[in-house]
Amino acid sequence: MTDEKTTLFADAVELMKRHGALHTVNIKYGYIIFGLSALFILVRTLSIWYYQRAWKRSGRSTTVLRVTSLPLPLSISLIVLTVAILVAVKPHLEKITVVVKRLGRLAYALIPLDIFLAAQPAWFSVDNYLNTIQMHKWVSRVIVLLGMFHSIGFLAYYVSMGTVGNLFRPVNFLGFLMFIFANIMFVFWKPIRNLNYTLFYLYHNFFMLALVVMIYFHARPGVGLYFFFNAMLLVAQTVRKYTRARDVTLTEIIENPGSNLLIVKFPKSLLPESYLPGCHVRIGYSKWTPFFTILPSHPYTVATSFENRDLLASLVIKKTKFKLEPFETYSIQPSFESSLSQNFFDTADNVNIVCGGSGISLGLVIFEYLKRSIISGGREIKLKFVWITKDEEDVFILQELNVQGVDVFITNNTSYELDSIQESAGIPLTELSNDSHDSLVTIDHKFSNTVVVGKRPDLEKLLQNNLSKTIDYANKWIISCGPPSLIEECSKISTKQKCRFFSEEYAF
Q1: Predicted TM-score (pTM) of this structure
Q2: Domains of the chain from N-terminus onward
Q3: DSSP string, 118-134
């Protein structure tokens, strides 16, 4: 034992001889970025809490809105600027490897924040992971870039010093492997994600685990504190995923020939007794199979309000490679809270919902909730619901879910039968336009469906009439759910019309 202690001491002395005091000079910079990460989480949480409290008291959604409305580009710029300052402070350029090491330490010290932001659901009830996932993506990019600059710096140093052989020392080679993994992640991130999300998900998880574990053994001085938090967050998230998930056999899946949409029903008892419109569940493979852990689950908005007395809740789903089959067992993780707070539903007095394709699932439940507030609660809400979809066969959704009051625009200019559209949508024909390019099915009484075929609407013109009924912008909203192009268009309209905007991106 004595000989072993002597050897360890001799190694430490030799290390100090080679690196001097500069060996530990970067430790404090890791602590600084770690502390600022914790401060960011605290400030964000308190800001959201304070904003919702102020909104509830004033009845206006814009009260102290500025405390939570920091644009994502500005938030990321602040993170990048903070990192740049920490790199630039006392860089000790007399030994270039000092600043190169600092890049790597700052990258690893940011990982706890990155994992925290990626939690599903968010760790704090005042927050929502759909609101933090974009931040997670950009923090991940900052981490990968810092790691790549760290690796490139050392590669250049070894080449210039003629010591490339150092690259193959076990602890250094771990860093070189991560450099290769990071290049694959950074260069092919978007193409792989767009081509095959499952492959991207598998590589993403492999990369994250490799980064956490391999850099723990690679880093000198050690990074045990950050590794502890990384490991605890990952373990806690995995345990929470297993304990929340429920296996269920899907017994009712409703389809319509020619439509790319389907309705999936599952026991409503899996959901809380009450929940806000806009909440969603995640469906994946049974949790008793290995696929539950290694393959992604898929989010779907619950299209049924908790006030609906049906024993089954409904999801409107676009057909994808992840196919849901009747009488097969899947895991359902309920319930992920809505990104819209109770304050929205209590104070909104002008709401314009615009959905594309399967995005109708979000619009339906918000629309039905507000419509009930008008009919049963006596509230004065100026309400409009526009659904843009590709195929006439999609309108079966309205009949199956017993929905009235939607302006439907079918964009495919194909041959169609008005009678079949009426039957699918459950709409009586009372008026037919003379325009040969589009057909209009409409009735005059309140909360009836309107269908226009072969034409995409001029959204600003379509929404203008309803928007103009309310002057105060604080509680006048455009809600958009669908593909990015639709969301961008609605966002521009909301800016021009000076009203509030909320969106969730769905595939069309």
Answers
A1: 0.86
A2: 2-242 (no CATH), 246-336 (2.40.30.10), 342-505 (3.40.50.80)
A3: T-SS-SSTTS-HHHHHH
